[in-house]
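Project standup — Tuesday

K.O.: blocked on the structure for the chain from last sprint. Re-posting the sequence here as requested.
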Amino acid sequence: MFNRILVCLDGSTHSEQMVPYAAEIAHRFGAQVLLLQVLQIPSSLAAASAQGAESVIEEEMRRLAYEAKQYLEGVAAGLRERGLAVNTVTIEGSPGDAIVEYAATSGIDLIAIATHGRKNIGRLVFGSVADHVMRHTHIPVLSMKPQPVKH
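H.V.: unblocked you, prediction finished:
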């Protein structure tokens, strides 16, 4: 039923709370896990782009991609120790659209994504990547509101 599970991570401990659930499903179905992080051009650099500073943006995106790859590989290592087949992917774009497009073109059977539990006005102002994904894909989505992180 599930051969390829996409786990959407954003570098937060909230998003990582989906990993054990996706891992359990992958274990039960013998599925491959794909850990995905979407990279966005920081708004502070978007203005630089308008002023012709493309090299600054390219350098920053390379740095972000490197950091994301290191982060994803760290998460993947724990899953691989459990015997799961895991790959990591970083892509650029708007998170909701990028996740939906990647899942549709990559043979994904299940998308696992955490909400960030925004309420009312926060949801209206900021939107929700998880809500966007659920509204724009026909692929099953496993989603949960993460528990507060204890420090």
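K.O.: great, moving the ticket to review. The CA atoms of residues 35 and 76 lie 7 Å apart. The chain has seven helices and five strands.
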